[in-house]
Prior knowledge:
- By secondary structure, this protein is an alpha+beta fold.
- Helix content is 43%, strand content 21%.
- The chain has helices at 11-23, 35-44, 65-76, 82-88; strands at residues 2-6, 28-31, 49-50, 52-55, 60-63, 96-97.
Amino acid sequence: MLILYTKTGCPFCERVVDKLDKLGVSFDERNIADEENLKELLEKGGNQQVPYLVDEGKNIEMYESGDIISYLNKEYGTGDMTDEAEDKDDDAPKVCPI
Length: 98
């Protein structure tokens, strides 16, 4: 099962949600506006940033929308890396602080 921690208005979270929808992968979106989700995120990941993906079936947890999208393409998609090309131009973190 995939769990994605998000924050309302975070463009990097939206990119990951769009990718999951495009791939047709079911996931549990947990918005950190809910205090329980925020507490859970901090307990699991430790960093105060989103998006944060947990793939329970493969024991994978990660931040950074570019890394998450690469992972989703590899594990759940066709291996299409067009999303990654956009991220290669900019080394800035692809996360939103909490």
